[in-house]
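Before the break, one more example. Copy the sequence into your notebook; we will annotate it together after we see the structure.
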Amino acid sequence: MENGITATVRGRSMEPLLREGDVLELAALPEPPRPGNVYAFRFPELVLHRCVGKQEDWQFRGDRQPRGETVAKTTDFFPSPRLLSRASPPPAWEIAFGLSALACRAESIPAPKNASLYWPWEKIFALCLRHNFLSLFAYGLKRTGLWEECPYQEILAQALQEDVLRAEKISATIAELDALFPQKRFLKGAALRALYPEPFLRVMGDVDVLVDEKAYQNSAQALAQKGFRWTKANQEIASFYHQTTLTSESTGICVEVHRSLFQENRYAFDSQPFLQGTESRAEQIAYLCAHAVTHWGRHGQSVLDIYLLLEQEAPDSASLLLAAQKTKSQLAMAFVLAGVDAWWNRDYAQGVEHGLSLWQRAKLWLAKEFFLHQFELNLYGFPKKVLQYLVSDGGFLRLYMDSGRRRMAVVD
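Here is what the structure looks like once it is written out:
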Protein backbone atom coordinates (compact mmCIF):
# COMPACT_ATOMS: atom_id res chain seq x y z
CA MET A 1 0.00 0.00 0.00
CA GLU A 2 2.88 2.39 0.55
CA ASN A 3 5.54 3.73 -1.74
CA GLY A 4 7.68 6.47 -0.18
CA ILE A 5 5.28 9.25 0.78
CA THR A 6 2.39 7.91 -1.29
CA ALA A 7 -0.22 5.25 -0.64
CA THR A 8 -2.22 3.19 -3.12
CA VAL A 9 -5.74 2.28 -2.04
CA ARG A 10 -6.63 -1.41 -1.88
CA GLY A 11 -10.19 -2.50 -1.24
CA ARG A 12 -13.50 -0.60 -1.11
CA SER A 13 -13.68 0.57 2.52
CA MET A 14 -13.24 4.29 1.66
CA GLU A 15 -15.73 4.53 -1.23
CA PRO A 16 -17.16 6.68 -2.65
CA LEU A 17 -14.42 9.30 -2.10
CA LEU A 18 -11.46 6.93 -2.46
CA ARG A 19 -11.45 3.70 -4.44
CA GLU A 20 -9.28 0.80 -5.52
CA GLY A 21 -6.14 1.98 -7.32
CA ASP A 22 -6.21 5.60 -6.12
CA VAL A 23 -2.76 6.98 -5.27
CA LEU A 24 -2.68 9.47 -2.40
CA GLU A 25 -0.05 11.76 -1.02
CA LEU A 26 0.97 11.15 2.58
CA ALA A 27 2.54 13.68 4.91
CA ALA A 28 6.22 12.99 5.54
CA LEU A 29 5.85 13.23 9.32
CA PRO A 30 3.13 11.80 11.58
CA GLU A 31 0.62 14.12 13.26
CA PRO A 32 -1.93 13.77 16.08
CA PRO A 33 -5.27 12.85 14.45
CA ARG A 34 -8.05 15.37 14.01
CA PRO A 35 -11.60 13.90 13.85
CA GLY A 36 -12.86 13.89 10.27
CA ASN A 37 -9.50 13.71 8.49
CA VAL A 38 -8.14 10.67 6.65
CA TYR A 39 -4.92 9.07 7.92
CA ALA A 40 -2.63 6.16 7.11
CA PHE A 41 -1.56 4.05 10.10
CA ARG A 42 -0.41 0.54 11.02
CA PHE A 43 -3.15 -1.85 12.23
CA PRO A 44 -0.95 -3.99 11.98
CA GLU A 45 -0.78 -3.54 8.20
CA LEU A 46 -0.99 -0.07 6.72
CA VAL A 47 -4.62 1.15 6.75
CA LEU A 48 -6.13 4.31 5.26
CA HIS A 49 -9.29 5.32 7.18
CA ARG A 50 -11.08 8.34 8.60
CA CYS A 51 -10.72 9.42 12.22
CA VAL A 52 -14.20 9.59 13.76
CA GLY A 53 -13.37 10.47 17.38
CA LYS A 54 -11.45 9.64 20.52
CA GLN A 55 -12.27 7.78 23.71
CA GLU A 56 -9.31 6.30 25.57
CA ASP A 57 -7.81 5.55 22.16
CA TRP A 58 -8.53 6.86 18.66
CA GLN A 59 -11.58 5.62 16.75
CA PHE A 60 -11.27 5.11 12.97
CA ARG A 61 -13.71 3.93 10.33
CA GLY A 62 -13.78 3.46 6.57
CA ASP A 63 -16.46 5.57 4.88
CA ARG A 64 -18.09 2.42 3.49
CA GLN A 65 -17.65 0.31 6.61
CA PRO A 66 -20.44 -0.40 9.10
CA ARG A 67 -17.90 -0.71 11.90
CA GLY A 68 -14.51 0.79 12.62
CA GLU A 69 -11.40 0.10 14.68
CA THR A 70 -9.87 1.36 17.91
CA VAL A 71 -6.24 2.42 17.44
CA ALA A 72 -3.73 3.03 20.23
CA LYS A 73 -2.70 6.63 20.91
CA THR A 74 0.95 5.64 20.52
CA THR A 75 0.43 4.79 16.81
CA ASP A 76 1.96 7.06 14.15
CA PHE A 77 -0.76 8.70 12.02
CA PHE A 78 0.13 10.13 8.62
CA PRO A 79 -2.39 12.59 7.10
CA SER A 80 -3.51 12.00 3.52
CA PRO A 81 -4.29 15.48 2.20
CA ARG A 82 -4.42 14.96 -1.55
CA LEU A 83 -5.35 12.46 -4.27
CA LEU A 84 -2.54 12.23 -6.83
CA SER A 85 -3.98 9.87 -9.44
CA ARG A 86 -6.90 7.55 -10.09
CA ALA A 87 -6.77 4.27 -12.00
CA SER A 88 -10.27 4.50 -13.50
CA PRO A 89 -13.41 6.66 -13.31
CA PRO A 90 -15.89 5.53 -10.64
CA PRO A 91 -19.42 4.45 -11.65
CA ALA A 92 -21.96 7.26 -11.42
CA TRP A 93 -24.28 5.29 -9.10
CA GLU A 94 -21.40 4.66 -6.69
CA ILE A 95 -20.90 8.41 -6.24
CA ALA A 96 -24.58 9.40 -6.28
CA PHE A 97 -25.71 6.77 -3.77
CA GLY A 98 -22.51 6.70 -1.73
CA LEU A 99 -22.10 10.44 -1.16
CA SER A 100 -25.82 10.87 -0.41
CA ALA A 101 -25.56 8.30 2.38
CA LEU A 102 -22.23 9.68 3.61
CA ALA A 103 -23.82 13.14 3.86
CA CYS A 104 -26.11 11.81 6.60
CA ARG A 105 -23.19 10.89 8.89
CA ALA A 106 -22.99 12.85 12.12
CA GLU A 107 -19.19 13.12 12.11
CA SER A 108 -17.11 15.46 9.96
CA ILE A 109 -16.36 14.05 6.47
CA PRO A 110 -13.84 16.30 4.65
CA ALA A 111 -12.46 14.74 1.45
CA PRO A 112 -8.82 14.76 0.36
CA LYS A 113 -8.17 17.35 -2.35
CA ASN A 114 -8.91 16.19 -5.90
CA ALA A 115 -11.17 13.38 -4.62
CA SER A 116 -13.61 14.12 -7.46
CA LEU A 117 -10.98 13.31 -10.11
CA TYR A 118 -12.61 11.69 -13.19
CA TRP A 119 -16.08 11.81 -11.68
CA PRO A 120 -18.71 11.44 -14.46
CA TRP A 121 -20.53 14.59 -13.35
CA GLU A 122 -23.22 14.55 -16.05
CA LYS A 123 -24.27 10.97 -15.26
CA ILE A 124 -24.10 11.62 -11.51
CA PHE A 125 -26.33 14.66 -11.89
CA ALA A 126 -28.86 12.69 -13.98
CA LEU A 127 -29.01 9.91 -11.37
CA CYS A 128 -29.40 12.34 -8.49
CA LEU A 129 -32.21 14.09 -10.35
CA ARG A 130 -34.01 10.81 -11.07
CA HIS A 131 -33.66 9.43 -7.54
CA ASN A 132 -34.45 12.67 -5.64
CA PHE A 133 -30.88 13.07 -4.36
CA LEU A 134 -30.08 16.54 -5.74
CA SER A 135 -30.25 18.46 -2.46
CA LEU A 136 -28.75 15.63 -0.43
CA PHE A 137 -25.90 15.25 -2.92
CA ALA A 138 -25.30 19.02 -2.85
CA TYR A 139 -25.29 18.86 0.96
CA GLY A 140 -22.70 16.07 0.77
CA LEU A 141 -20.51 18.12 -1.59
CA LYS A 142 -20.57 21.01 0.86
CA ARG A 143 -19.78 18.79 3.84
CA THR A 144 -16.86 17.08 2.08
CA GLY A 145 -15.43 20.34 0.69
CA LEU A 146 -15.96 19.22 -2.93
CA TRP A 147 -18.56 21.87 -3.74
CA GLU A 148 -16.09 24.06 -5.64
CA GLU A 149 -15.15 21.14 -7.90
CA CYS A 150 -18.76 20.60 -9.03
CA PRO A 151 -19.76 21.97 -12.48
CA TYR A 152 -23.45 22.07 -11.48
CA GLN A 153 -23.20 24.48 -8.55
CA GLU A 154 -25.86 26.89 -9.84
CA ILE A 155 -28.46 24.17 -10.48
CA LEU A 156 -27.76 22.43 -7.18
CA ALA A 157 -27.92 25.70 -5.26
CA GLN A 158 -31.32 26.36 -6.82
CA ALA A 159 -32.48 22.84 -5.90
CA LEU A 160 -31.40 23.40 -2.30
CA GLN A 161 -33.31 26.67 -2.14
CA GLU A 162 -36.45 25.18 -3.68
CA ASP A 163 -36.39 22.15 -1.39
CA VAL A 164 -36.00 24.32 1.70
CA LEU A 165 -39.08 26.32 0.70
CA ARG A 166 -41.02 23.17 -0.18
CA ALA A 167 -40.08 21.54 3.14
CA GLU A 168 -41.59 24.52 4.98
CA LYS A 169 -44.85 24.09 3.05
CA ILE A 170 -44.83 20.36 3.74
CA SER A 171 -44.33 20.98 7.46
CA ALA A 172 -47.33 23.32 7.43
CA THR A 173 -49.39 20.70 5.56
CA ILE A 174 -48.40 17.99 8.06
CA ALA A 175 -49.51 20.28 10.89
CA GLU A 176 -52.89 20.79 9.16
CA LEU A 177 -53.40 17.05 8.72
CA ASP A 178 -52.32 16.44 12.29
CA ALA A 179 -55.15 18.67 13.49
CA LEU A 180 -57.66 17.37 10.93
CA PHE A 181 -57.29 13.62 11.60
CA PRO A 182 -57.11 12.68 15.32
CA GLN A 183 -56.17 9.08 14.51
CA LYS A 184 -53.75 8.83 11.62
CA ARG A 185 -50.30 7.63 10.64
CA PHE A 186 -48.00 9.55 8.36
CA LEU A 187 -46.27 7.31 5.83
CA LYS A 188 -43.07 7.31 3.77
CA GLY A 189 -41.28 10.68 3.62
CA ALA A 190 -43.57 12.45 6.09
CA ALA A 191 -42.68 9.82 8.69
CA LEU A 192 -38.99 9.42 7.80
CA ARG A 193 -37.72 12.97 7.22
CA ALA A 194 -36.42 13.00 10.82
CA LEU A 195 -33.77 10.44 9.78
CA TYR A 196 -32.02 13.11 7.71
CA PRO A 197 -29.75 15.92 8.97
CA GLU A 198 -32.35 18.48 7.81
CA PRO A 199 -36.02 17.89 6.85
CA PHE A 200 -35.58 19.47 3.40
CA LEU A 201 -33.02 16.78 2.48
CA ARG A 202 -35.80 14.17 2.40
CA VAL A 203 -37.48 15.31 -0.82
CA MET A 204 -41.21 14.54 -0.98
CA GLY A 205 -43.59 14.68 -3.91
CA ASP A 206 -46.63 14.60 -1.63
CA VAL A 207 -47.75 13.87 1.92
CA ASP A 208 -49.16 10.38 2.56
CA VAL A 209 -51.38 9.75 5.55
CA LEU A 210 -53.15 6.56 6.67
CA VAL A 211 -56.55 6.97 8.39
CA ASP A 212 -59.40 4.71 9.51
CA GLU A 213 -62.33 3.91 7.22
CA LYS A 214 -64.70 6.52 8.70
CA ALA A 215 -62.16 9.31 8.38
CA TYR A 216 -61.34 8.15 4.86
CA GLN A 217 -64.96 8.39 3.74
CA ASN A 218 -65.12 11.99 4.97
CA SER A 219 -61.58 12.96 3.99
CA ALA A 220 -62.36 14.62 0.65
CA GLN A 221 -64.94 16.93 2.21
CA ALA A 222 -62.73 17.67 5.22
CA LEU A 223 -59.76 18.55 3.03
CA ALA A 224 -61.90 20.66 0.70
CA GLN A 225 -62.95 22.77 3.68
CA LYS A 226 -59.25 23.40 4.35
CA GLY A 227 -58.61 24.70 0.84
CA PHE A 228 -57.61 21.48 -0.91
CA ARG A 229 -58.97 20.93 -4.42
CA TRP A 230 -59.22 18.19 -7.04
CA THR A 231 -57.00 18.47 -10.08
CA LYS A 232 -56.88 16.35 -13.21
CA ALA A 233 -53.73 14.65 -11.92
CA ASN A 234 -55.50 13.95 -8.59
CA GLN A 235 -58.42 12.28 -10.38
CA GLU A 236 -56.09 10.00 -12.37
CA ILE A 237 -54.25 8.92 -9.22
CA ALA A 238 -57.49 8.37 -7.29
CA SER A 239 -59.03 6.24 -10.06
CA PHE A 240 -55.94 4.04 -10.17
CA TYR A 241 -55.05 3.68 -6.50
CA HIS A 242 -58.46 4.15 -4.84
CA GLN A 243 -57.41 6.86 -2.44
CA THR A 244 -58.38 10.44 -1.72
CA THR A 245 -55.90 12.75 -3.44
CA LEU A 246 -56.22 16.53 -3.28
CA THR A 247 -53.87 19.47 -3.75
CA SER A 248 -53.65 22.61 -1.60
CA GLU A 249 -54.56 25.74 -3.52
CA SER A 250 -52.28 27.89 -1.38
CA THR A 251 -49.12 25.74 -1.28
CA GLY A 252 -49.47 23.33 -4.21
CA ILE A 253 -48.71 20.41 -1.87
CA CYS A 254 -50.57 17.21 -2.74
CA VAL A 255 -52.05 15.03 0.01
CA GLU A 256 -52.85 11.35 -0.44
CA VAL A 257 -55.19 9.86 2.16
CA HIS A 258 -54.97 6.07 2.41
CA ARG A 259 -57.36 3.58 3.96
CA SER A 260 -54.81 0.74 3.66
CA LEU A 261 -51.09 0.34 3.13
CA PHE A 262 -51.41 -1.46 -0.22
CA GLN A 263 -53.98 -2.29 -2.84
CA GLU A 264 -55.86 -5.54 -2.39
CA ASN A 265 -53.99 -8.73 -3.33
CA ARG A 266 -50.57 -7.04 -3.36
CA TYR A 267 -49.26 -8.12 0.05
CA ALA A 268 -50.71 -9.16 3.42
CA PHE A 269 -50.06 -6.06 5.53
CA ASP A 270 -52.48 -5.30 8.37
CA SER A 271 -52.97 -1.53 8.41
CA GLN A 272 -54.29 -1.37 11.97
CA PRO A 273 -50.96 -1.76 13.82
CA PHE A 274 -49.47 0.96 11.60
CA LEU A 275 -52.45 3.23 12.24
CA GLN A 276 -52.06 2.68 15.98
CA GLY A 277 -48.26 2.96 15.89
CA THR A 278 -47.80 -0.55 17.34
CA GLU A 279 -46.09 -2.22 14.38
CA SER A 280 -42.59 -3.61 14.95
CA ARG A 281 -39.48 -2.12 13.41
CA ALA A 282 -39.18 -5.28 11.29
CA GLU A 283 -42.74 -4.81 9.96
CA GLN A 284 -41.90 -1.19 9.15
CA ILE A 285 -38.86 -2.35 7.17
CA ALA A 286 -41.01 -4.93 5.35
CA TYR A 287 -43.51 -2.22 4.34
CA LEU A 288 -40.77 0.12 3.10
CA CYS A 289 -39.13 -2.67 1.08
CA ALA A 290 -42.43 -3.58 -0.57
CA HIS A 291 -43.06 0.09 -1.30
CA ALA A 292 -39.55 0.58 -2.77
CA VAL A 293 -40.23 -2.12 -5.38
CA THR A 294 -43.25 -0.16 -6.65
CA HIS A 295 -40.92 2.78 -7.39
CA TRP A 296 -37.99 0.83 -8.85
CA GLY A 297 -36.02 2.91 -11.30
CA ARG A 298 -36.54 5.95 -9.06
CA HIS A 299 -35.92 4.00 -5.89
CA GLY A 300 -32.82 5.72 -4.51
CA GLN A 301 -34.54 7.86 -1.86
CA SER A 302 -36.85 5.01 -0.77
CA VAL A 303 -33.96 2.58 -0.34
CA LEU A 304 -31.85 5.21 1.42
CA ASP A 305 -34.74 5.58 3.90
CA ILE A 306 -34.43 1.86 4.66
CA TYR A 307 -30.64 2.07 4.99
CA LEU A 308 -30.84 4.98 7.44
CA LEU A 309 -33.58 3.29 9.45
CA LEU A 310 -31.53 0.09 9.71
CA GLU A 311 -28.42 2.04 10.70
CA GLN A 312 -30.41 3.65 13.49
CA GLU A 313 -31.83 0.43 14.92
CA ALA A 314 -31.54 -2.78 12.94
CA PRO A 315 -33.85 -5.68 13.89
CA ASP A 316 -32.22 -9.09 14.03
CA SER A 317 -32.50 -11.29 10.95
CA ALA A 318 -35.03 -13.59 12.62
CA SER A 319 -37.40 -10.65 13.24
CA LEU A 320 -36.99 -9.43 9.67
CA LEU A 321 -37.69 -12.90 8.30
CA LEU A 322 -40.79 -13.33 10.48
CA ALA A 323 -42.18 -9.92 9.43
CA ALA A 324 -41.51 -10.63 5.74
CA GLN A 325 -43.22 -14.02 5.87
CA LYS A 326 -46.18 -12.64 7.82
CA THR A 327 -46.78 -9.88 5.27
CA LYS A 328 -45.95 -12.02 2.21
CA SER A 329 -43.15 -9.65 1.27
CA GLN A 330 -40.16 -11.95 1.77
CA LEU A 331 -38.93 -11.79 -1.82
CA ALA A 332 -39.39 -8.02 -1.98
CA MET A 333 -37.44 -7.59 1.27
CA ALA A 334 -34.67 -9.95 0.15
CA PHE A 335 -34.37 -8.08 -3.15
CA VAL A 336 -34.31 -4.56 -1.69
CA LEU A 337 -31.97 -5.45 1.18
CA ALA A 338 -29.62 -7.01 -1.38
CA GLY A 339 -29.48 -3.52 -2.89
CA VAL A 340 -28.74 -1.96 0.50
CA ASP A 341 -25.94 -4.48 1.00
CA ALA A 342 -24.45 -3.94 -2.47
CA TRP A 343 -24.59 -0.13 -2.51
CA TRP A 344 -23.61 0.60 1.09
CA ASN A 345 -21.59 -2.49 2.09
CA ARG A 346 -23.97 -3.95 4.65
CA ASP A 347 -25.21 -7.47 5.44
CA TYR A 348 -28.85 -6.89 6.32
CA ALA A 349 -30.15 -9.36 3.72
CA GLN A 350 -28.41 -12.24 5.47
CA GLY A 351 -31.00 -14.70 6.74
CA VAL A 352 -34.00 -13.11 4.98
CA GLU A 353 -33.88 -15.75 2.20
CA HIS A 354 -34.32 -18.61 4.67
CA GLY A 355 -37.15 -20.97 3.80
CA LEU A 356 -37.61 -19.89 0.19
CA SER A 357 -38.59 -22.62 -2.26
CA LEU A 358 -36.37 -23.43 -5.23
CA TRP A 359 -38.81 -21.57 -7.51
CA GLN A 360 -38.74 -18.48 -5.27
CA ARG A 361 -34.95 -18.58 -5.13
CA ALA A 362 -34.84 -18.77 -8.92
CA LYS A 363 -37.15 -15.74 -9.19
CA LEU A 364 -35.04 -13.81 -6.68
CA TRP A 365 -31.84 -14.65 -8.56
CA LEU A 366 -33.36 -13.39 -11.81
CA ALA A 367 -34.53 -10.19 -10.12
CA LYS A 368 -31.06 -9.51 -8.71
CA GLU A 369 -29.32 -10.43 -11.95
CA PHE A 370 -31.41 -8.22 -14.22
CA PHE A 371 -32.89 -5.48 -12.04
CA LEU A 372 -30.77 -4.77 -8.96
CA HIS A 373 -28.58 -2.21 -10.73
CA GLN A 374 -31.30 -0.90 -13.03
CA PHE A 375 -31.27 2.74 -11.96
CA GLU A 376 -33.31 4.00 -14.93
CA LEU A 377 -36.06 1.40 -15.20
CA ASN A 378 -39.29 2.51 -16.89
CA LEU A 379 -41.71 2.83 -13.97
CA TYR A 380 -44.79 1.88 -15.96
CA GLY A 381 -43.33 -0.40 -18.63
CA PHE A 382 -43.35 -4.14 -19.07
CA PRO A 383 -39.93 -4.62 -17.34
CA LYS A 384 -41.41 -3.09 -14.18
CA LYS A 385 -44.25 -5.63 -14.24
CA VAL A 386 -41.75 -8.45 -14.67
CA LEU A 387 -39.82 -7.21 -11.63
CA GLN A 388 -42.98 -7.02 -9.52
CA TYR A 389 -43.77 -10.61 -10.41
CA LEU A 390 -40.26 -11.85 -9.70
CA VAL A 391 -40.21 -10.37 -6.20
CA SER A 392 -43.76 -11.36 -5.29
CA ASP A 393 -44.34 -14.21 -2.84
CA GLY A 394 -47.45 -15.32 -4.76
CA GLY A 395 -47.68 -18.28 -7.07
CA PHE A 396 -48.67 -16.73 -10.39
CA LEU A 397 -49.37 -13.46 -12.12
CA ARG A 398 -52.84 -12.15 -12.84
CA LEU A 399 -53.85 -9.06 -14.79
CA TYR A 400 -57.28 -7.65 -14.21
CA MET A 401 -59.24 -4.61 -15.18
CA ASP A 402 -59.99 -1.98 -12.58
CA SER A 403 -61.60 1.39 -13.29
CA GLY A 404 -60.60 1.16 -16.93
CA ARG A 405 -56.88 0.69 -16.09
CA ARG A 406 -54.78 -2.50 -16.43
CA ARG A 407 -53.22 -3.44 -13.13
CA MET A 408 -51.15 -6.26 -11.80
CA ALA A 409 -52.03 -8.41 -8.81
CA VAL A 410 -50.22 -11.45 -7.45
CA VAL A 411 -52.35 -14.17 -5.91
CA ASP A 412 -51.61 -17.49 -4.29
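Residues 282-412 form one domain. The longest strand covers residues 46-54. Try to locate both features in your own notes.
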